[in-house]
């Protein structure tokens, strides 16, 4: 059995060039091609594909713009990458991209080094639709949009870091028309082509779903002959279930279900599929979402990514998805809703427990004091001001999680004699210096407002120097050498405690101290009252606008 | 939302708050054993927690939360320190005590059923300007507090200095009187004026 499989797999893995297109003008030995077939999927020039480079945290999406073989028989594909919003979040500014929006890289320098080796990095096809209103762009139909994995209508100049809706005539030396939607080409919809692709994809997606966790060789062995249709896929996933952890087993199961569903659909309603890329998309998407899912147990960020994927699938393919897949995504949706709400400025968002509330306690942590010290040295310490004093440390951690999507450790400053009764402060340790600085600058340029109209302020945390106890006024000492006798008495007084008796100088002094204490108390109270009044006035302005908005 | 266990947790915590007293005007040299021995005369001290000073100036007095065995004992501590001048580990600055408050604890549990809401305002939001103003006011208030604290510390320093001077003067006076007795000046004067000197 294994014998057979390996052989079949080798056949599968084969890379085959398609039709020749021509040779390079500068070097005749460089041969250009119009397409290539890899793992039974045919990629044409100007198709979009997922690629996964070793070391990346996620797949990237790119357009294949040139395919050629060098004189030394190295297979190369030149690509122009799309940027995911998260990759360019620094320059997003006021743009608020949708979850499935991409930005086409443009400007100087694009594509100069973007040559990939298809055999190593290509994961699968991706359906990207251009929704630009540019005249040169054939308008995308609703069905196209519905089936698209991603869309784009803006470019990002990678050198100048500018986002623009304008498309230059050429991007990376390729005419811009090729980046827009394709002119409808009847050849591509030929039924035979379609059928073949369905079967191939069914087999292949299992393969690609494992790329994230199994080494290439291992995954190849797992992959089954594509031509056999659905049953080997099921078999595969069953085997995977027994050998892999629970999480992974779940994801594999889902993929199987989805695959089955889409294939059924393709079979019964062929009329729905009008484009060659359409049927690719369904499966490729599932393989795309599987990559993050497999890694979800190790990488927290991935998890959120997955949630997005999960949600997007529910409305789209709701009727297709079996109960299990539905449940899995349902369970995650509330958390997601929270995350998104925080970003969309829609309204107040309720801060719920962040997903990993019960963090692992396997490792004993250093005492908080020491962690604070190191955090200050590393620049990861942030002091949040103007919180509600009644917040607890955990609530602050949740708040930061929802506002910045950062996992942090936080501790409220304990209220004492010298802390402001109206402002709660908290020391927050971020995971990295960049994260801390980003949070501070975001707090300064924007406003994170709490339900009672408090804008949260943030600044770099600086700790009070520790060390020798500072000077404390009010404990008087007589010169020791002058009076041994009194010194003995004093020592007794130091080691014990007592109440001052009337009729002593100590009593008089104590009375003076008490007067000072009362006096400072009054000062503080007056200050706080005045401040509270000012603050109330400002806040009432805030409230009024809110009410105006509502009515 | 609030499960019974969190509610009982919170109730237990509130009980703890009630039997805890907050002490300030403490010398930084005071340690937990000193604190325990000082307050054990009013009941049984269950725990002592010095509130760490992370962001305030270094020279502020120490503060501590002392958990007593029950509410009665806590009240005893508070009433005693308000009626008498209670000295711990030095004189004559008296220690003050007051009932502890929830916000003084760093390990406080979440209030059951309480939810937090937050929202990002962008520049176009009508509230944005007001919110920025509030931020400004927050900073201003912090600066005011810092100034008052500095004043307070100065006051304390000058009072301490003033008292030290008086104490020294007083001590000198006593010493002079003492010396008169010791070196026989008093006796000679008494003889001179025909007075008896015992």
UniProtKB/TrEMBL annotation, chain A:
Pfam families xrefs: RRM_1
Alphabetical list of PANTHER family matching this protein: BAH DOMAIN-CONTAINING PROTEIN, PROTEIN ANTI-SILENCING 1
Sequence ranges assigned to domain RRM in this UniProt record: 380-456
PROSITE patterns: BAH, RRM
Highest rank taxon of the organism: Eukaryota
Entry protein name: Uncharacterized protein
SUPFAM superfamilies per UniProt: RNA-binding domain, RBD
Compositional bias (Basic and acidic residues): 277-286, 296-323
Gene source species: Quercus rubra
Annotated segments matching region Disordered: 263-332
CDD domains reported for this sequence: RRM_SF (cd00590)
UniProtKB keywords: RNA-binding
GO terms for MF: chromatin binding; RNA binding
Location of the BAH domain: 41-167
Annotated coiled-coil segments of the chain: none
TrEMBL record, chain B:
SMART domains documented for this protein: RRM
Lineage per the UniProt record: Eukaryota, Viridiplantae, Streptophyta, Embryophyta, Tracheophyta
InterPro entries, per database record: Epigenetic_reg_gene_expr, Nucleotide-bd_a/b_plait_sf, RBD_domain_sf, RRM_dom
Gene Ontology molecular function: RNA binding
SUPFAM superfamilies: RNA-binding domain, RBD
Organism: Quercus rubra (Northern red oak)
Keyword flag RNA-binding: yes
Protein's name in the database: RRM domain-containing protein
Boundaries of every RRM domain copy: 19-102
Key words, A-Z: RNA-binding
């Amino acid at each position: 059995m294994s014998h057979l499989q390996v052989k079949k797999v080798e056949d599968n893995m084969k890379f085959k060039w398609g039709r020749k297109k021509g040779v390079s003008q500068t070097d005749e030995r460089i041969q250009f091609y119009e397409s290539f077939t890899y793992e039974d999927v045919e990629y044409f020039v100007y198709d979009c594909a997922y690629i996964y480079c070793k070391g990346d945290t996620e797949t990237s999406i790119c357009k294949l713009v040139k395919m050629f073989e060098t004189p030394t028989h190295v297979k190369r594909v030149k690509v122009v990458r799309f940027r995911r919003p998260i990759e360019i979040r620094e320059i997003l500014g006021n743009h608020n991209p949708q979850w499935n929006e991409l930005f086409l890289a443009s400007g100087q320098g694009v594509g100069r080094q973007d040559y990939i080796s298809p055999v190593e990095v290509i994961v699968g096809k991706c359906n990207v639709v251009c929704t630009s209103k540019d005249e040169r762009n054939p308008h995308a139909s609703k069905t196209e949009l519905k089936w698209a994995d991603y869309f784009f209508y803006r470019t990002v100049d990678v050198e100048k870091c500018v986002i623009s809706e304008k498309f230059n005539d050429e991007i990376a030396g390729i005419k811009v028309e090729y980046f827009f939607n394709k002119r409808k080409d009847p050849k591509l919809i030929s039924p035979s082509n379609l059928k073949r692709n369905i079967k191939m994809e069914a087999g292949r997606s299992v393969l690609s779903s494992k790329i994230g966790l199994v080494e290439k060789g291992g995954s190849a062995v797992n992959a089954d002959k594509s031509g056999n249709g659905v049953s080997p896929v099921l078999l595969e996933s069953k085997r995977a279930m027994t050998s892999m952890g629970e999480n992974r087993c779940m994801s594999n199961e889902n993929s199987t279900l989805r695959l089955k569903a889409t294939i059924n659909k393709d079979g019964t309603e062929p009329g729905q599929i009008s484009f060659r890329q359409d049927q690719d998309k369904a499966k490729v998407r599932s393989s795309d979402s599987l990559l993050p899912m497999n890694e979800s147990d190790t990488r927290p960020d991935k998890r959120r990514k997955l949630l997005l994927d999960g949600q997007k699938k529910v409305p789209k393919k709701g009727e297709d998805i079996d109960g299990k897949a539905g449940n899995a995504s349902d369970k995650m949706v509330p958390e997601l809703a929270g995350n998104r709400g925080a970003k969309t400025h829609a309204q107040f968002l309720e801060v719920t427990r962040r997903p990993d509330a019960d963090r692992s306690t396997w490792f004993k942590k250093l005492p908080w004091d020491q962690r604070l010290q190191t955090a200050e040295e590393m620049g990861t310490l942030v002091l949040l001001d103007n919180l509600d004093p009644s917040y607890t440390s955990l609530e602050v951690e949740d708040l930061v999680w929802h506002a910045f999507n950062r996992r942090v450790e936080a501790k409220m400053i304990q209220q004492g004699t010298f802390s402001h009764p109206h402002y709660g402060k908290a020391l927050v340790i971020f995971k990295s210096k960049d994260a801390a600085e980003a949070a501070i600058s975001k707090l300064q340029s924007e406003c994170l407002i709490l339900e009672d109209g408090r804008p949260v302020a943030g600044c770099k945390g600086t700790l009070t120097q520790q060390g020798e106890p500072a000077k404390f006024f009010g404990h008087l000492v007589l010169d020791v050498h002058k009076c041994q006798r009194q010194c003995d008495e004093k020592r007794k007084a130091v080691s014990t405690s007592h109440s001052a008796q009337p009729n002593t100088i100590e009593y008089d002094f104590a009375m003076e101290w008490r007067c000072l204490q009362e006096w400072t108390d009054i000062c503080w109270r007056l200050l706080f009252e005045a401040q509270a009044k000012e603050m109330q006035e400002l806040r009432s302005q805030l409230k009024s606008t809110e009410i105006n908005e509502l009515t | 939302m609030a499960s019974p266990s969190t509610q009982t947790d919170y109730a237990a915590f509130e009980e703890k708050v009630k039997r805890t007293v907050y002490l300030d005007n403490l010398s930084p040299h005071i340690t937990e054993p000193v604190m325990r021995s000082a307050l054990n005369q009013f009941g049984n001290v269950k725990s002592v927690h010095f509130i760490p000073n992370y962001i305030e100036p270094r020279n502020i007095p120490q503060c501590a939360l002392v958990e007593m065995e029950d509410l009665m004992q806590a009240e005893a501590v508070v009433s005693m320190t308000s009626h008498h001048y209670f000295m711990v580990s030095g004189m004559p600055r008296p220690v003050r005590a007051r009932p502890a408050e929830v916000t003084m604890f760093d390990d406080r549990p979440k209030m059951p059923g309480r939810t937090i809401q937050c929202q990002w305002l962008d520049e176009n939001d009508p509230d944005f300007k007001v919110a920025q103003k509030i931020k400004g006011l927050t900073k201003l208030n912090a600066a005011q507090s810092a100034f008052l604290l500095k004043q307070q510390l100065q006051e304390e320093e000058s009072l301490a200095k003033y008292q030290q001077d008086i104490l020294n003067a007083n001590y000198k006076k006593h010493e002079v009187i003492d010396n008169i007795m010791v070196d026989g000046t008093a006796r000679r004067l008494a003889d001179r004026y025909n007075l008896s000197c015992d």
